[in-house]
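Pipeline run #58 for the internal structure catalog. This entry was flagged by the ingest filter as a single-chain record with no existing model, so it goes straight to prediction. Upstream metadata was stripped on purpose; only the residue string is passed forward. Reviewer on rotation: M.T. Logging verbosity set to normal.
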Amino acid sequence: MTSLVRPATLHDLDALVPLFDGYRQFYGKPSDEQGAREFLTARLRLNESLILLARDGHGVAQGFTQLYPLFSSVRMVRTWLLNDLFVAAHARRQGVAKALLEAAATHAKKLGAASLSLSTAHDNLPAQTLYESLGWQRDLQFREYSLVL
């Protein structure tokens, strides 16, 4: 089945919230649909992220990806962080993740980005296989660190 992917707006919150809540639960967080609604509303209202929503031919929400704008100081260019990617259980293995990744690349190019970046778990081999099939390259030059505040 073909997915239609387009930028989400505040009008899409009822479709996005359950997907976002499912995404968070996948990563071990408790369900919090009200918190998810507030978080997504803020991102959309403040234009702090680009959320792409995939729907099937009947308009049923299938998945989403959320990108955050960044800059590379060394290269002096705009980049985007593909921070979230989630496909609902009913839509998996139908090409939805691929459609979302391709749409993310297209939108980032349109917005003048020089690159996209993402992180995934070391043991998430299906995702790594998909990313590499679409031309994503694993960084062999840098290690990524984080500091919990």
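catalog note: The chain has a mean pLDDT of 94.
catalog note: The chain has four helices and five strands.
status: ready for reviewer M.T.
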